[in-house]
Design goal:
It is elongated, with a radius of gyration of 29 Å. It folds into 2 domains: 241 residues, Rhopdopsin 7-helix transmembrane proteins (Up-down Bundle), CATH 1.20.1070; 114 residues, Arc Repressor Mutant, subunit A (Orthogonal Bundle), CATH 1.10.10. The chain starts with 7 loop residues before the first helix and ends with a helix. The protein is an all-alpha fold. Helix content is 74%, strand content 0%. The chain contains 17 helices and no strands.
Length: 368
């Protein structure tokens, strides 16, 4: 029988469910960045289903036996968030059959196993009433497995974030969004890791004290819906769309971007192209046999600098090395500056002060 009293907890939980369903659909049907929004919108929607399942379990006696329909699919949380991140990093990514393997645990456990168990319980109610502690123990163990599963995907999200240092500079802002995901997962995982063992130890009393598990878990799910859903919709969704739009315009992949960055740095250092005082972006692009816009993208977005500052940095580093050589003592400071590529004393001193905070003369004195 449904509990029609609708206490304050259930009222706010139901409000969060409606908000989550609405937010999920709004995010899914945003015009831009469809795949990224699709995965995150589904995640918010599943949060809502999980919370609704909690409410119905508490409000309807024997809900799982009377209505054997899985409504949680909590093992899909991690994969959806993970794919959301992968499509942020690489908007050109194509969904493959291998990606479906991420959802295999959810399909087998939430879809097949739970449905089979619920149908069996419904057909053997007498046995179910005699073995309530056993059924609850199995449910708690599976919940614990879900926490471990989510922990693994939390690590995957963290790894994707930490390994993306060479991406566009805006990724530093995207990392804040990833941190919100990781923090949310951490609270949810932490609660389950603590609550499930306690529930197993006192399994005989779980049925009479279900609110001790139900309410905190409901609060965490509600906060996840509001925090992640509204934060993404009002702030980070637009940032993600802008970021992925820029990444999608690259003519090369993330791995190629890293390779081009390394190639550029190797050529500058080993070939000493910076020593050419007449070096321009076009001349450097021609030497690398790259389009100018590709070179500009690598410098600006991967090295997080501009052409002039990049070349001046290498010239200043070369100057520092030359100063420390004994044979360089016969040359003037200006002579050494021109040797590494600076055209004039003014440009040399200005660039050196900007890069190091001191003048060339002060640097030489510090090395004495």
């Amino acid at each position: 029988m449904i509990d029609t009293s609708l206490n304050s907890s259930n009222f706010f939980f139901l409000l969060a469910v409606f908000q989550g369903v609405l937010l999920g659909f709004i995010i899914i049907f945003r015009r831009q960045n469809k795949k990224t929004n699709l995965f995150f919108g589904l995640l918010v929607f599943l949060f809502s289903l999980s919370l609704l399942h909690l409410i119905l379990e508490e409000s309807i006696s024997g809900f799982n036996a009377k209505y054997p329909f899985p409504m949680e699919f909590s093992l899909s949380y991690g994969p959806l968030a993970y794919l959301h991140i992968l499509y942020i990093k690489d908007p050109k990514r194509i969904f493959s059959k291998k990606d479906l393997l991420h959802f295999l645990p959810s399909m087998l456990l939430d879809g097949v196993f739970f449905t089979a168990i619920f149908l069996y319980i419904r057909a053997h109610m007498d046995w179910a009433y005699e073995n309530i502690p056993l059924i609850q123990s199995v449910a708690l163990v599976i919940t614990f497995f879900g926490a471990i599963h989510l922990s693994i995907y939390t690590y995957f999200i963290y790894r994707e974030s930490s390994e993306a240092k060479h991406m566009l500079r805006e990724f530093e802002k995207i990392k804040k969004w990833l941190n919100y995901l990781i923090i949310t997962w951490s609270f949810l995982i932490g609660f389950l890791v603590l609550a499930v063992p306690v529930g197993l130890l006192f399994i005989e009393d779980v049925d009479n004290n279900s609110a001790l598990l139900y309410k905190p878990l409901g609060i965490l799910l509600s906060l996840s819906i509001y925090l992640l859903g509204y934060l993404y919709l009002l702030k980070y969704g637009q940032l993600v769309e802008s970021y992925t739009e820029r990444v999608s315009k690259f003519s090369f992949s993330e791995e190629e971007l890293e390779g081009r960055k390394n190639q550029l740095l190797y050529v500058l250092k080993e070939k000493k192209l910076y020593c050419d005082s007449a070096l321009t972006l076009a001349k450097l692009a021609n030497h690398l046999n790259w389009p100018i816009n590709s070179l500009s993208n690598v410098i600006n977005e991967s090295l997080l600098t501009n052409f002039n500052d990049l070349i001046n940095y290498h010239r200043i580093e070369a100057f520092k090395e030359r100063v420390c050589e004994r044979e360089s003592q016969k040359y003037s400071i200006i002579g050494l500056g021109q040797e590494v590529g600076f055209r004039s004393k003014a440009s040399f001193y200005r660039a050196f002060k900007k890069e190091t905070g001191i003048t060339p003369s002060q640097f030489i004195e510090s090395q004495a």
